[in-house]
């Protein structure tokens, strides 16, 4: 028993060689993604003169210093924290939903269920966030129901204009980003793998913990990252559902841009991109995200 | 048989779908003696895999009972049945090493790590995979994966091992090798093996008892020799190897021998094991026992026209057409001396001293 099959993936015939085939995509990524980011990082080191509004190519860390000392850091950290919390909750909520779609539904039903998750994108972020006011407000649907049911005497104040409302709004908007990669991960599990686990003596929860969860972990991490990155850019939910004076990274960038302090705005953006890339690298390194694109089993 | 039954199926049926459609498994009763190797043989759609799934606990029977050593397990989930399964597509855990896969069941049983490692190593040695414990599943060849699945099930020392098409999807050389290994493991471990297969060679080579299934029912159950030499009907005869069959114009019953009339020949046949209904009888012959009659010899059947001769390695398959348009194929060994007849020739066929079997065309056990 010494034969070992080559584990290299066979190339499909008829396709151009990989470097050539990747060229259009590479041009897109560089032209539309990397080049603007590089410019932003570059300009973030220029000097801004608040007296004249002039921007001069002086190469200074002044914008980064400004980021650190004028109360902007808490906003940055708060947005990061809120995004991470939202991403974690979205991933948890997506697990059972994706399990039902990916494991228990036929392809047709799964397509319909996935399509339903795109409903949040039918309206603009602004309207979507505003709609939550009608649900969570003092006289909103939830408070009215709870009061009518006699469960509470006074409307709950913390439902709206709070972190709670912001997270609810973001979850509703971004859940699909967590569901889709998980559905794909669940769909890749061979039914016989689950049966084999039962056959060898595992009940449902043991099978879930020892077999299913490890196999969908890369999908869960990918979903977490998607939601985290998208949530980092949130503004509507914070402005419409957050408490008075609540800010976020994108609101802060907006404010800074309004006084044409472009270097500072770019410095904030650069930090956010750096954090996002760092989180991505850690995830790829520790959760073997490449598994998502690998042929499992056969 | 005096040995206790490892598995008993008591009038087990399975109907899929809301309405009472055609049952996939239709009141099958079967007793599998402990320590035996039993095969369920049948074409796809015969219900053999469904029977295995019901025994494994993955599908509930619509009616009937399943007993393990006399104990009713019909309502038990798979994890509480004293059997293990080799699934057709194996179901190996891709996120674990070979040792992780084989040790999975032992871990669940709370076996201490040291004892577990010893058992896993011993079992890997038994299936010829010593030294592979650290490998990942995707680094293994098809045959090696098959062995991991065997080891993973057998390390739990199940009293019953269920094998669902264990050799499907492997190339011919590997099939034979693994087939022999499965037989060796069965003899060595003394557990009851129940295999599902559509391959008659596999079933005949490995099994003590073979049950031939069609459309959810058992057509015949018996030792490989019984099935081969005394097929209960034309379906079993064709499925188990006598795929040279001809339909006679008439049959004349007799005491020790029946006579089938084909063309102007009267063919002496063994009496049918079961009486035929409207489907009538079929003369079943063994393709490897038929030969072209020598010059001057009056054959058992003929004359027939040779339509084609196909080289098949060990044999040449000769296709002939009878006077009434029926076709009959037989085999001429390549190294047997006699040259195979050429297409266009008109010959007589002979099989004496072998005897033709007369079997009922359709299932007629109830008639």
From TrEMBL, chain B:
The keyword Cell membrane does not apply. Pfam families: ABC_tran (PF00005), TOBE_2 (PF08402). One of its GO terms (molecular function) is transmembrane transporter activity. The keyword Transferase does not apply. InterPro entries: AAA+_ATPase, ABC_SmlMolc_Importer, ABC_transporter-like_ATP-bd, ABC_transporter-like_CS, Mo/tungstate-bd_C_term_dom, P-loop_NTPase, Transp-assoc_OB_typ2. Residues 7-240 form the ABC transporter domain. Gene3D superfamilies: P-loop containing nucleotide triphosphate hydrolases. Keywords: ATP-binding, Nucleotide-binding, Transport. It comes from the Bacteria. GO terms for biological process: quaternary ammonium group transport. One of its GO terms (cellular component) is ATP-binding cassette (ABC) transporter complex. Belongs to the ABC transporter superfamily. PANTHER family: SPERMIDINE/PUTRESCINE IMPORT ATP-BINDING PROTEIN POTA, SPERMIDINE_PUTRESCINE IMPORT ATP-BINDING PROTEIN POTA. This is ABC transporter ATP-binding protein. It comes from Methylobrevis albus.
């Amino acid at each position: 028993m010494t034969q070992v099959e080559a584990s290299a993936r066979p190339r499909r015939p008829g396709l151009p060689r990989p470097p050539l085939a990747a060229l259009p995509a590479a041009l897109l990524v560089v032209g539309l993604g990397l080049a603007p980011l590089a410019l932003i990082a570059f300009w973030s080191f220029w000097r801004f003169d608040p007296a004249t509004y002039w921007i001069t190519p002086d190469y200074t860390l002044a914008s980064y210093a400004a980021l650190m000392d004028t109360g902007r850091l808490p906003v940055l950290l708060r947005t990061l924290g809120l995004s991470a919390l939202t991403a974690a909750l979205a991933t948890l909520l997506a697990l059972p939903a994706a399990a039902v779609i990916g494991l228990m539904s036929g392809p047709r039903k799964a397509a319909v269920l996935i399509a339903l998750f795109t409903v949040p994108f039918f309206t603009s972020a602004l309207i979507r966030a505003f709609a939550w006011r009608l649900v969570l407000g003092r006289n909103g649907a939830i408070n009215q129901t709870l009061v009518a049911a006699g469960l509470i005497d006074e409307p709950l104040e913390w439902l709206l204009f709070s972190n709670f409302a912001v997270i609810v709004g973001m979850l509703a908007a971004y859940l699909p980003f967590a569901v889709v990669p998980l559905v794909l991960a669940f769909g890749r599990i061979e039914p016989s793998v689950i049966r084999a686990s039962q056959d060898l003596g595992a009940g449902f929860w043991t099978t879930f913990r020892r077999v299913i969860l490890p196999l969908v972990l890369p999908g869960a991490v990918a979903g977490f990252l998607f939601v985290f990155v998208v949530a980092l850019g949130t503004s509507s939910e914070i402005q419409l559902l957050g408490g008075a004076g609540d800010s976020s990274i994108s609101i802060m960038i907006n404010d800074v841009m309004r006084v044409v302090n472009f270097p500072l705005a770019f410095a904030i953006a650069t930090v956010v991109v750096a954090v996002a890339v760092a989180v991505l690298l850690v995830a790829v390194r520790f959760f073997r995200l490449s598994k998502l694109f690998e042929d499992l089993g056969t | 048989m005096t040995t206790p039954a490892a598995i008993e199926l008591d009038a087990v049926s399975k109907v899929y779908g809301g309405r009472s459609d055609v049952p996939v498994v239709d009141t099958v009763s079967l007793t599998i003696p402990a320590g035996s190797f039993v095969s369920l043989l049948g074409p796809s759609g015969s219900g053999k895999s469904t029977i295995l799934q019901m025994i494994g606990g993955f599908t509930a029977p619509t009616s009937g009972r399943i007993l393990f050593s006399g104990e009713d397990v019909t309502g038990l989930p798979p994890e509480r049945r004293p059997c293990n399964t080799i699934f057709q597509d194996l179901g190996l855990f891709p996120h674990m090493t070979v040792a992780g896969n084989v040790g999975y069941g032992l871990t669940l049983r709370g076996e201490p790590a040291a004892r577990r490692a010893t058992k896993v190593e011993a079992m890997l040695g038994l299936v010829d995979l010593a030294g592979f414990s650290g490998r990942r599943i995707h680094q293994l060849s098809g045959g090696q994966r098959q062995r991991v699945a065997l080891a993973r099930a057998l390390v739990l020392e199940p009293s019953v091992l269920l094998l669902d098409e264990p050799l499907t999807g492997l190339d011919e050389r590997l099939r034979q090798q693994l087939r022999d290994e499965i037989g060796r493991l069965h003899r060595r471990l003394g557990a009851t093996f129940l295999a599902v297969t559509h391959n008659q060679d596999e079933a005949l080579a490995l099994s003590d008892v073979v049950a031939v299934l069609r459309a959810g029912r058992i057509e015949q159950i018996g030792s490989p020799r019984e099935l081969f030499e005394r097929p209960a009907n034309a379906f079993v005869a064709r499925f188990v190897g006598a795929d040279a069959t001809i339909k006679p114009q008439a049959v004349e019953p007799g005491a020790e021998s029946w006579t089938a009339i084909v063309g102007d020949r009267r063919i002496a046949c063994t009496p049918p094991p079961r009486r035929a209904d409207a489907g009538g009888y079929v003369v079943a012959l063994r393709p490897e026992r038929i030969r072209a009659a020598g010059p001057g010899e009056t054959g058992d059947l003929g004359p027939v026209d040779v339509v084609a001769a196909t080289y098949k390695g060990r044999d040449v398959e000769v296709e002939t057409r009878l006077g009434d348009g029926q076709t009959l194929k037989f085999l001429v060994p390549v190294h047997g001396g006699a040259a195979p007849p050429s297409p266009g020739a008109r010959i007589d066929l002979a099989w004496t001293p072998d005897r033709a079997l007369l079997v009922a065309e359709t299932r007629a056990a109830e008639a």
